[in-house]
Specification:
0% strand, 63% helix, single chain
Length: 81
Amino acid sequence: MSDNPNAHAVSASLMAADTALCALIAALKAGGSLDTKVFKDKLAELERIQEGCDKLNQTQYTRSLALYVAAAEGRLPAAQS
């Protein structure tokens, strides 16, 4: 681990943004303000636009999108206490 306290600041910020986005999608779904089919169609459209772009970590990219779809479908895993 680096002695620099900011060494992983970008990763931590991206993880926080990812978490907040997932929470927003889930909240919209729970409140009835998100149409899952429209969300998935728009997500697929954006994926087509980005086709051929280097994702750097395709596995993590795919997992993140799957989590967004799970949130849009109202099937996020329950938090463990």
